[in-house]
Amino acid sequence: MHPPGASTVLVRHGEIGTKSDQVRMRMEGRLRENLAAILADRDVPGDVHVERNRLYVHTDAVEAATSAVTDGFGVVSASPARVVDPTLDAIGDALVATAEAHFAGGTFGIDARRAGETDAHPFSSRDIGEVGGRAVGEALDAAGFDPSVDLDDPDLTLSVECRPDRAFVFCETRSGPGGLPLGSQAPLVALLSGGIDSPVAAWLAMKRGARVQPIYVDLGDYGGADHRARAVATAERLAAYAPDQVDELSIAPAGDAVERIAETTHDHRMLVLRRLMLRIAAQASESAVGVVTGESIGQKSSQTTANLAAVQRAIGAPVIRPLATWDKDRVIARAREIGTYNDATIDAGCNRVAPSYPETGATPAGVDAVEPADASRMAADIADRVESIPIEPRHD
Ligand SMILES: Nc1ncnc2c1ncn2[C@@H]1O[C@H](COP(=O)(O)OP(=O)(O)OP(=O)(O)O)[C@@H](O)[C@H]1O
C-alpha cells in the first residue's frame, strides 16, 4: 500500500547503525550491492542509494521493489514512499492524497518525525501532525466519511519522515529479516539435507551475514529418489535471498561410505555418519571457516547434548547450529515464512540409516572407538569428488 505518486522505497537497517563509521559504511555499501542484485534478479527496476543510516530505492515499481528489498539480509523494514518538499503545505497535500486513496472508514493517525538537522525546518513534528491531521480530517469529511483520530492503533496510519532537504510520506511499513548484510562475515559451508531444519539453519546463518555454500551428501541407496531433488529445491529457494552469492549446490557422493558405515556400526551409526558429513563439508570448501547444520538439542536421539559434543570433535572448525535451542514448531513456522517448507516434508534418507537402539550418551572416545580407522581418508576422498551444480533462484 503506497501513497499516489510514490517513487521511492525507504529502507531501514538496524544493527548496522550501531557499528563504527568505517564498518557501517562498508556494511551499507554491501547492503546496497545485495539489494541491487535482488532487484536485478527479479527484473524489478530500481536504483539503490545509500545515505547515512538509510538506503533508498528510486523506482517506478514501488510495490515489487518493497517486496524484493524486504528479502535482503540486514533490512529491518521498508516503506514505499512519496517524496515531497519539506514544507507543511506539500506534506499536507501528500497526506490528503494518501488518505483519499486508502481510507476505508474508522480511524486514522499521523505519525510524524523529523530526522537529520531538525532546526532546518520552521515547524515541529507536532505541527506536522496537527496541520496534516486537520487537512486529512476535512478531506475525509468532504468525501463522506466520519473519521476520528486514533494515535495508538488507527485503522490507517499516515507516516511522515521529514528530512532537511525532503520529506517522505508513506502508509505502510513492511518487515525485513533484520540481521547483517550477506557477505559481511567470512563464508560457511551449510550441510543441507533438504529436510525442514537445515534450510532454516542455512538461512539464519545467511541472515547474520555469512555467505553459505550449500552441500548435500548423497546417501546412495539410503537416500531415496526424491532426496536429492528436495535438496536442490530448497537450495534454489535460499538462492532467491542471495542471487549473486549462492549459485551452486555441492553434491558429495557418499553412497559407498554410508553403506560401509551401516554394515560396520550399530548404536553409534548416526554419529559416525554425522562426523563423516562434517569432515566432508569442512574439506569441500577452501574459503569456509565453519560448518552450519540444522541440528537442535534433543530433537533426535543423535542430537542429545552429549552426542552433539561427540560429533563436533571430528573437525577443528566450528560447527554452527543456529537451531540448537529452537522448538520444532518455531522451525516449521520459519520454514513456511522463508518458503522452504513445502519441499522439505518428505521423510529424510537418514531415517533409513538410523539403528533401532541408538546411542544417546556418546563420548568422543566412544565414537572414535567404533569409527572406521580410515574415516578421515574416506571423507577426504569423497570431498575430492564433490560435484557442484548450478542453482537458479526460485521465487514462489
Ligand atoms: N544428506 C544430507 N546432506 C547434507 N546434510 C545432511 C544430510 N543429512 C543430514 N544432514 C545434516 O545433518 C543435520 C541433522 O541431520 P538429521 O538427520 O536431523 O536431518 P534431516 O532430518 O534429514 O534434515 P533436517 O535436519 O534438515 O530436517 C541436518 O540438519 C543437516 O544439517
Automatic annotation (TrEMBL):
Record pathway: Cofactor biosynthesis; thiamine diphosphate biosynthesis
GO biological process, one term: thiamine diphosphate biosynthetic process
Predominant cellular place of this UniProt entry's protein: cytoplasm
Gene3D superfamilies assigned: 3.30.2130.30, HUPs (3.40.50.620)
GO molecular function, one term: tRNA binding
PROSITE patterns membership: THUMP
Function description: Catalyzes the ATP-dependent transfer of a sulfur to tRNA to produce 4-thiouridine in position 8 of tRNAs, which functions as a near-UV photosensor. Also catalyzes the transfer of sulfur to the sulfur carrier protein ThiS, forming ThiS-thiocarboxylate. This is a step in the synthesis of thiazole, in the thiamine biosynthesis pathway. The sulfur is donated as persulfide by IscS.
Protein name per the record: Probable tRNA sulfurtransferase
